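Session log. Operator J.P. requested a structure for one protein chain; no other inputs attached. Running the standard single-chain path with token output.
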Amino acid sequence: MSSGSFFNLTPDKFSVLRHVKPKNHAESEPFVEFDDITRSVRKLLFSFIEVGMLAAIDSSNSVA
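Structure written below.
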């Protein structure tokens, strides 16, 4: 899996580019990549927490 296709899933990249308005595209790239990485990590973390909470609720219901 190439990282390019993974980060293209987030449409926010283009709004970030519009707000920054860099002199050339190369200057904005690290900022955009870092922003996308943190956003995807945050989504992953929250989905893990959500799954963990659902599993805990499910297991407590089955015990009772």
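Operator note: Confidence is low (pLDDT under 50) at residues 1-9.
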